[in-house]
Automatic annotation (TrEMBL):
<dbReference type="Pfam" id="PF09312">
    <property type="entry name" value="SurA_N"/>
</dbReference>
<feature type="signal peptide">
    <location>
        <begin position="1"/>
        <end position="23"/>
    </location>
</feature>
<dbReference type="GO" id="GO:0003755">
    <property type="term" value="F:peptidyl-prolyl cis-trans isomerase activity"/>
</dbReference>
<dbReference type="InterPro" id="IPR050280">
    <property type="entry name" value="OMP_Chaperone_SurA"/>
</dbReference>
<keyword id="KW-0413">Isomerase</keyword>
<keyword id="KW-0732">Signal</keyword>
<dbReference type="InterPro" id="IPR046357">
    <property type="entry name" value="PPIase_dom_sf"/>
</dbReference>
<feature type="domain" description="PpiC">
    <location>
        <begin position="199"/>
        <end position="296"/>
    </location>
</feature>
<keyword id="KW-0574">Periplasm</keyword>
<keyword id="KW-0697">Rotamase</keyword>
<dbReference type="Pfam" id="PF00639">
    <property type="entry name" value="Rotamase"/>
</dbReference>
<dbReference type="InterPro" id="IPR000297">
    <property type="entry name" value="PPIase_PpiC"/>
</dbReference>
<dbReference type="InterPro" id="IPR027304">
    <property type="entry name" value="Trigger_fact/SurA_dom_sf"/>
</dbReference>
<protein>
    <recommendedName>
        <fullName>Parvulin-like PPIase</fullName>
    </recommendedName>
</protein>
<keyword id="KW-0143">Chaperone</keyword>
<dbReference type="InterPro" id="IPR015391">
    <property type="entry name" value="SurA_N"/>
</dbReference>
Length: 448
């Protein structure tokens, strides 16, 4: 397991299972592996010469053609969101994964059309316009120009939107009405929550890749490639939407607040070691591999200290543009020594009159809005105390003085309805995965 710090992202995903090629006519005696559930031999002799890179990465899905342009434009959507360069082998894996995504997307759209519940053009345009406003702060026409500039198109993004909306419609008709949660189950969860008051819970996001015994090794290799890309920075949300096979993909992989007992043991063991801002994976679980991102951590049914409202005074000094390092160090030392003489917030103004520092009052600041390093320092202060000096001669050096702190009240248990919705979502997710597998099994797919 690898753990990377930073706000993360960028994805490659499961590629085709690779086999060792033998010259034509080669023979080998194969023995069936004892642990192989479908009787595959331990040693595989491939007949003929394999030339995987000469195949055209296009397909016809129940008569619908997925073109090379479709794949290239979707690749452009992904690579433009990443700040790092993709190696040729990573791009190849990316193209293979995108082809699989486009096939699944096509199956979802076709299934919705077959059940006479196609996604309307108005729905697609409404979602597209909302994305333009939220993610680009510009109108739809300008976003279309941007998409073309990166080698993609508005049509490519709208096709992805259509697939997501079609899937939502299918789940709403074929799965959601048949998922039932009893009042007894919800009350049992509420009881366990109260019993676990004060224990940790975690705000998590996930990218899930399914695997079978036959392609496990290939999926694991490509999940490791995903981790390598994510560790170099980017948008976890964007890539979870593109590649995660869980239903949470439409919300960027967000799992919400989770307690360790709600997770498979493999995931719980990894999360227990993580700190907010870290990425962990690939983690093997029954049915596939997961990559987790920990956004935040708090205690069950307890107040979150990050929601405290703070009253702060900022005391800052500036430096001449041509100041030397020696002069700056001396001035910082003088500033730190003076700050130590201050006796509470009422005394802070003395820094202005005696030292020429600026004093600015910041009221009603939520602790969670402070940078993490500063927040950790401020949350350890008592009233009238200051942080250590921070900054630079170029930007100025300053301290923060805590002049007031209103801690939030203990948070109550989630409502009956919230718990019921959470259990329903978990069951819908499991049935949705089975439903998609059925669509794949029933499909007629021709590769070019």
């Amino acid at each position: 397991m690898k753990v990377f710090s930073r706000n993360c992202t960028a994805v490659m995903a499961a590629g085709l299972m690779s086999f060792t090629a033998f010259p034509t006519g080669a023979q080998t005696q194969a023995q069936t592996g004892a642990g192989n559930s479908i009787g595959l031999p331990d040693n595989v002799a491939v007949i003929g010469t394999e030339q995987p890179r000469e195949r055209s990465a296009t397909a016809v899905v129940n008569g619908y053609v997925i073109t090379r342009t479709d794949i290239n434009q979707r690749v452009a959507l992904v690579t433009s969101a990443s700040q790092n360069q993709f190696r040729p082998e990573d791009l190849e894996r990316l193209r293979e994964q995108i082809l699989r995504n486009l096939i699944d997307e096509t199956l979802k759209v076709q299934a919705a059309q077959a059940q006479e519940m196609p996604v309307s053009r108005a729905q697609i345009e409404q979602t597209y316009n909302r994305l333009a406003a939220q993610n680009f702060s510009q109108d739809p026409e300008q976003m279309g120009v941007y998409l073309e500039s990166i080698g993609s198109s508005a049509a490519a993004l709208k096709r992805q939107i259509e697939g997501e909306l079609a899937w939502e419609n299918l789940l709403r008709r074929n799965i959601t009405p048949f998922v039932n949660v009893s009042a007894e189950e919800v009350n049992e969860v509420l009881k366990r929550l109260e019993e676990s008051r004060g224990t940790d819970e975690y705000q998590l996001s996930e990218i899930y890749l399914s695997a079978t015994p036959e392609n496990r090794a290939a999926v694991e290799r490509n999940a490791a490639a995903i981790m390598e890309q994510l560790g170099q920075g980017g948008s976890f949300v964007a890539y979870a939407r593109q590649y995660s096979e869980a239903t949470t993909a439409v919300v960027g992989g967000d799992l919400g607040w989770i307690r360790l007992g709600q997770l498979p043991p493999q995931l719980a063991a990894s999360v227990r070691q993580m700190q907010p801002g870290q990425l962990s994976g690939p983690i093997e679980i029954p049915g596939g591999f997961s990559i987790l991102y920990l956004t935040n951590k708090r205690q069950v049914l307890m107040a979150d200290p990050n929601n405290a409202i703070l009253n702060l005074k900022q005391i800052a000094i500036t430096f001449e543009p041509d100041v030397t390092q020696e002069e700056a160090d001396a001035k910082v030392a003088q500033f730190a020594g003076f700050v130590d003489t201050l006796r509470g917030c009422a005394d802070a103004e003395r820094a202005q009159t005696e030292l020429g520092a600026s004093v600015v009052e910041n009221n009603q600041i939520q602790a969670s809005r402070l940078p993490e390093q500063l927040r950790n320092m401020v949350m350890q202060l008592q009233l009238g105390q200051t942080t250590r000096p921070f900054g630079s001669p170029q930007d100025g050096v300053r301290v923060l003085m805590l002049c007031g702190r209103d801690d939030p009240q203990d948070s109550g248990a989630p409502t009956f309805e919230q718990i019921m919705n959470q259990i329903e979502e978990e069951r819908i997710d499991k049935r949705a995965q089975r439903y998609l597998r059925d669509l794949r099994n029933d499909a007629y797919i021709e590769y070019n």
